[in-house]
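Cont'd.
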Amino acid sequence: MKVNLMFRHRDFDIKAKLCFGKDVLTSDLGLERVLSNMARGDKIIYDACSTALFCPLQTIDEIRYRQENLRDALRKPDTVRKLYEITVETEKKRRSSWHWLSSAYLSSTFSSAIELLKIYTEMLMELRLVADSKLSGFQSEGFRNLLTMIQRELDDNYFTKVQTLLYELKDNDGMLISARLGNYLQGVSYVLRRKNRKGFWFRWAFAPSYTIAPRDDAGATDLSKRRDRAINEATNALAQAAEHLEGFFTMLRVELAFYVGCLNLADSLRALRMPVCIPNVLPLERQDRSWHGLYDVSLALAKNEAVVGNELDTADKRLYIITGANQGGKSTFLRSIGQAQLMTQCGMFVGAESFSAPIRNGVFTHFKKEEDAAMKSGKLDEELSRMSEVADHLNPGSLMLFNESFAATNEREGSEICRQITKALIDCNVEVFSVTHLYTYASAFLNDPNTQFLRAQRLENGERTFRIVPGEPMQTAFGVDLYRKIFANSKVK
Amino acid sequence: MFYSILFRNQEQYELTRRTDEPDCFKDLNLDQIFAPILKSKKEFELEGFFYTSLHDAETITYRQEVMGELENDELRRLFAGFSKIIYNLDRYMVSTRASLTSDSSYDNNYLTRGRMLDYADRYCSEISALAAGLNGKTLRSDGLSNFAEYLTAYSESEAFKGLCTHVARLRKELSRVEYSMLIKSGTIRVRKYEGEDDLSKQILACFEKFRQGEVKDYRQKVIEEPAAAHVEAAVLDMVAGLYKDIFADLNSFCEKYLHFLDPTITRFAREIQFYLSWLDYILPLRQAGLPFNYPKLCNTAEQLYCRDMFDLTLAFLTRDKTVTNDFMLNAPERIIVVTGPNQGGKTTFARAFGQVHWLASLGLCVPGSEAALYLFDNILTHFGREEDLSTLNWKLQDDLVRLHGLLEKATSRSIIIVNEIFSSTTLSDALTLGGYMMDAISALGAPAVVVTFLDELASHGSDTVSMMSTVKEDDPTQRTYKIIRKPPDGLAYAMHIASKYRLTYKQLCRRLIK
């Protein structure tokens, strides 16, 4: 029985190798807050969403498969949550039953396996009941396959058979064992046998017998050894079955966890009256992007209120240079793009009214950092060393986000370094978004037709709107305004 | 009259000391410098002494002289052992006194009294040993010679001699006590020892003739401590009944000498650790050949300098490869503006400048071969910080808010250290704001170090001195880590570093095409 909610033909590996720079992406793009919101304290949801986010899918087909499932989940949140709850409940029951398969005593593993199987059977029945009543509401390939499989594999006959078997194994009437003769006619190849043939008890009633004397301890020990030999194979089969079922419930939980995480986040964002949409995915070779109302999901969650979104509609661009006022929303804008790219490529919705973007074979960030406390290197050195590490993993078709990179030296030097790196990236087909204060750097691309210039908007009266709009770089960044505001009415001049 | 080895008199000792880290510690790496000391000397609670800078030259000199004298290895060894034992005894006695004044026999029993006698015994021998050790030594510093005088007088006082005599008498009497226990069905009985033979010895003797070859050793390590103190105490109660006089003497000893430790001596035991810990800490650096000196403290900023200065945290990594730097400020010069290629030691220089000042204000010996340093009221620092999404406080605003806070607090007696701010805005903005900042610092009249990428700030006025991090002449990618007086030359070293990381246009294209 396969779950296959994350991939059409394979399991979702929660321990899969994550993309390069996961920790850096998490902190630069503010993803910790997003993941926490999805998880709401559930570690499995956190891990599942984190793995999905940091193993970006590379084909439109795979992404659409998840998007379809997600649409179903958003349509039928209660059912998806109910299914997930069943998996959580199963895990809880397993833990609180105190039955472990790994015992030093065979008889203990035997009875534990039976008890665990009883729990799993009961929970499978619950899944079946959900499938019976809710299947018709689902349209996606993933959820329909899962629910029909549950119905098909777990029909009433099956449950009757399992329950009879489990009952018989616990039966106190006796244990039926078959054996063969060994080299000196000893009993070998013990096999545990069932006792449910017609007329069984009648025939056995007249069989000859030997009774161990009341104080014959050795005799009593011998009998229990025989039982152990007999249940050996059976125990193995039972324990393996229990383990398989545990695996099924775990996989079901992990794969549902991703969708429950999405539901949680969608609920939070809707409560803030922020839109979410299932993005339109374009092939890798495309170089156009368009979106409406794209916002920083992490910022919305941090402020717990609606935040400003941005518009964009471009074609054939490889480089986006974002300049303008401090505190004008540039970093936020950059984060929203990185978030949306990763969310799109794991099949999630994005924080926007509409979003259309090409697949990228990797998302990389290079944000300005605090001075290294260990003092091993200066700032520029540290930035270059980080960039070099990123370069080891970059490929044509990647997405690179720069946030005030290489500004830790003077403008002339910083601009030159930044210009050469950026030029190399775009010439090798890496898509680059670059937030910068380096005017010299920005203006070097003024005549490049494949560069889109954007600027933090500032109204006539100097007020910032936190919107990013098309516009070429200007020489000043309004820092003096800020200075006047902070140093106003101060004894210090 | 001697009162404290860290302060010249009782009034100064009783002034409030800081209990939390000063703001400049993180930027100057002083937190990293003091952490190992404070950790290894945790029980002495030295934080307040390292966190509180002194503002009067006399006390600083008082400390410098004590520390200078403690550079003598023999003297230091003498005090190190003494300090630790006396200070610990003082701490143990706090709980012992609580037990001995308690009504509960669970705490207040002969076991506890026995412990107190033991502490007193150790106290007497430590005091006598130190007094003997210092006898005949000529001490130059006010602090140590006054203490030695105090110790001699104390060790010859009637009170102390009485304590020693009483301890010795009790030890002798108690050594004569010998008793036997009979344990049966959970019962222990006690009597005086009456000459019964050793069973083990007899058994051994008895079976000696069967002995042959090596056998396993079945003995186990036993800890000679009572497992249950109350049982042991009950046994002792019975023993006490058998030797009434001796135990009555012990009781009166405990009553009489409940406060046998001299507070001035225990204070000394704690405070001397301030010096010892610092000298221990810098020992590896001295062994690597790095100089330390006792700076002159100046009330005015007429002439400030430090030769062969270095950053302590870095020196622990680079040891004998440490590069030292000089600075010199002659009036009207007051502001050092450091420019030059990155990773050339600019930040390290700024840190070292702050460190030597803080350390000097504590009366410690400081990195460098010779120095005259400013007697400041506060060290104010501003080093670049990482953007934090949750505070929703952007970089430039943060820079300005913190710079504003810094300038509000500053006086002409402050030391200002500013490291690479305004790097998150445009060149023209940074120049304007940097200019404002220089005006403000200049107007203050306080000594300052400004590390910047803005060459223009280095020629701000007559009070600015330009210093630069330098590179090797034959290979500009190699830093010398020397910061020297020299006007900024704006040379483009950055591309050299870029090529070191294979990030020039050509190199990067080659890497991406693969």
